[in-house]
Amino acid sequence: MNVNKDPNRPFDPEILKQAKSYARRCTLVIEPNDDLGYFGRTKEFEFVMGDGKTIEKCAASVREATALAAAALLECGQQLPFLQVEAECNG
Q1: Is residue 7's pLDDT more than 90?
Q2: What is the pTM of this model?
């Protein structure tokens, strides 16, 4: 695979579309933060983070960062982490 290593060039539109779709299905973990408002990540990419003054802005920040991380993996031919699904327990 011939990968363009110029960090300033955009991702292939099809790869970015696939990465954004993946990011929308990731499980968000968002916590209040005294300095930032909210701080978040996904369970699938625990080291990809975002923040925002509101939960909605934090979620958007995390999803955007996750999509970019996923696009970078896809572009290099790597597989994305499995989506984490929490099972419901009906005790």
Answers
A1: no
A2: 0.83
